[in-house]
Structure formats: C-alpha cells, structure tokens
Amino acid sequence: MNEKDKKITQENFESTYEDEIEVARIDKFVCDEMARQIHRYIKAMKGSKHIMLKFEESIAPLSVAEKEEVIAKYIDLNRKAISGLDFKIVLARAMANYCDTFAYLVHLVNDKRRMVFYLNRIKDKYLQFHEVFEENGHFGMKDYKGRVLITPRYDFLRTCYVYVDDLKSLPVIAQKEGKMGLIMPDGFDTVVADFLYDDISLRDEYPYFEAVKEGQEGYIDSEGRFIGKVQQ
Predict the structure, then answer these.
(1) Are 115 and 123 in contact (CB under 8 A)?
(2) What is the value of pTM for the model shown?
(3) Which of 4, 192, 208, 219 is most buried when burial is the number of CB atoms within 10 A of its CB?
(4) Mind listing the pLDDT tens digit for each residue in 205-226?
(5) Three-state secondary structure of 69-88
(6) What mean pLDDT comes out for the span 108-134?
(7) With contact defined as beta carbons under 8 Å apart, do 94 and 29 qualify?
(8) Mean pLDDT throughout 43-60?
(9) Rounded CA gap, 117 and 26, in Å?
C-alpha cells in the first residue's frame, strides 16, 4: 500500500502528515531564540552595545529564512556563540511560544518523533561550518556543503574572517610564497590586499587588519590600502 492509499486514523494522523503551519511557527520561534543567543554572546563576549544593537537592527527587516542564513553564518564565524547551548532548551522555548496550553506543550515535548525532527532541523539550519582542507601541501577552504570557497594554493590560511556589525564578511588572511595578503572566501580567490606583507593580524575595530610591510607597521583598510601608523 502506497502513502496515498494509506488509511488515515486519529492515531497515525500526526505521524503521517506534517503540519506546515506548526513547522513554520516553530521555525520562527527557534529563530527568535537563536537571535537572542547571539545577542547574549555579543553582550557577554564583545562588550559592545553598538555592535549588539547594530546586529539586531540589521536582521530586523529580514524574513525568517534570511535570518536563519545570517545567524548560521554568524555562528560559523563565531563558534563560541553556541558554546554550552542546549538545543533542546531552544526547542522547548520555541514550542512553549507556539502552544496555547501547557497540556499541548507537554504533548509536543513528549513526542519523540517530533523532538528528533525539530532538533535535526535546527542543527541543519544553524550548524553550517566551513572547513580548511589540505591538498598537495597547500590549504584551501570549503563551505558546509563542500563547495570550494578558497582554492588549495596557499601555505597558510587563518580562518578568522568574521562578520562585522553590518553583516559583511571580512577577507581571510592568507600566505603565499612567504608573504601574506587578504583574499575573499567567494569561490574566486578575489585578492583584497596583495601578497606584500610580512605579517597581518585581525583587530576588533576598523580598520580591521593590522599589518607589517617592509618593517613599517600600519593598517589595511576596506579597499586593501596600506595606511602607515603615525609615529608619535
């Protein structure tokens, strides 16, 4: 007997048919909880109210699907944001927001099939980690689907690219032939700053990169230009 011919009963209705409205609402409430987690992380770890508020303002006009994507990317680049986070608690809170009665909340939480379905759904949506890989002694980067973001042609990659408060990703620090530069993880190895530097490190504020070039210390701006430090 195929699924179409299966007899519908009170007992098998919920296990056979997914409630699209329920899924959409719980997705929305999970998204709200994950956004609050980012809020708490920024507040606790970054200590910048400006960045915290800027992040919230940036995602406010987005759809749920767009927010999920942004939050997943933020988590990928700031993995400590979910350190110690129990997704079962996130899901229980989302379900509590969805339910009209405590009795129905208890029913949902005790439904093992539903809990597994939603927990897997949460992890699929929010745990989308990139990874550095090695090929023939050189390093590249792939996204969570295995798509190549940076081709394996570099001696070193520092996976420190992070989202700043306008949600634009920063370049990756890379090394090639003994010199360091900045490239975008865009699948094209777009060079932001040429490989001319003896050292590049990340800062918490703009300009986001501190660099040393031919013995001179300075910064690299968003256009890839080197700005020497003013000597006191």
Answers:
(1) no
(2) 0.74
(3) 208
(4) 778 899 999 999 999 988 899 9
(5) HHHHHHHHHCHHHHCCCCHH
(6) 94
(7) yes
(8) 73
(9) 12
Per-residue pLDDT at 66 = 95
Tell me the residue length of the chain: 232
Beta-bridge mates of residue 142: 131, 148
Least confident of 22-36, 51-65, 76-90: 51-65
Give the number of other Cβ atoms within 10 Å of residue 227's Cβ: 11
Q: In what order do the strands lie in the sheet with 172-176?
A: 156-158, 172-176, 179-183, 191-197
Distance of alpha carbon 150 from alpha carbon 53, whole angstroms: 32
Which helix (H) or strand (E) segment holds residue 151: the answer is strand 148-154
**Cα–Cα distance measured from residue 55 to residue 190, given in angstroms and rounded to the nearest whole number:** 26
Give the three-class secondary structure for 175.
strand
End-to-end alpha-carbon separation of the chain, Å?
83
3-class secondary structure per residue, 8-46: CCCCCHHHHCCCHHHHHHHHHHHHHHHHHHHHHHHHHHH
As given in the structure block, the two tokens for residue 161 are 């690219």
43-52, 112-121, 124-133, 159-168 — which is least confidently predicted? Answer: 159-168
